[in-house]
Amino acid sequence: MKINHLGIATKGIKEALKFWEDALGLENVHTEVVADQKVRVAMLPIGEIRIELLEPTSEDSPIQKFLEKRGGGIHHIAIEVENIEEALAKLKREGMRLIDEKPRIGAEDCLVAFVHPSSANGVLLELVQSKK
Ligand code: ZN
């Protein structure tokens, strides 16, 4: 297992890139709208992982709710797994609370599923299985 990316909630990616790209020097290599999750994402590689900037695309986006509550910040940690179905089944067997019982399509057509923060010490955890 390894960390795939860190998700950071922003009010606007364009504004956020003034820090992450212009000032810090990372490069935004990919931007897309993930309709299923009502977010626009920007991916900035850093070492072996990426920073994923998230921007809400609608008022009822989960990111919008997060921004209203906390004003931005680290939203989730994404862990790359070999087999997401197996990983979800194991977590369920261990009695862990899942947000997604079944994988969904995430950014770049990866399979993703979220584990509830109440089972992961307050951290929203995303499982990612890369497209083979
Ligand atoms: Zn993510």
Structure, described:
The two termini are 16 Å apart. The protein has one domain: 2,3-Dihydroxybiphenyl 1,2-Dioxygenase, domain 1 (Roll), CATH 3.10.180.10. An 8-stranded mixed β-sheet has the order 2-3-4-1-5-8-7-6. The protein contains 3 helices and 8 strands, in the order βαβββαβαβββ. It has 132 residues and is of the alpha+beta class. The mean pLDDT is 96. Bound molecules: zinc ion. Zinc ion binds next to strand 1 and strand 5.
| CATH class categorisation | Alpha Beta
Q: What is the number of strand segments? A: 8
Low-confidence stretches: none
CATH topology descriptor: 2,3-Dihydroxybiphenyl 1,2-Dioxygenase, domain 1
- Average pLDDT, all residues: 96
Order of helices and strands: EHEEEHEHEEE
The CATH architecture term is Roll
Number of helices: 3
> What is the count of structural domains?
1
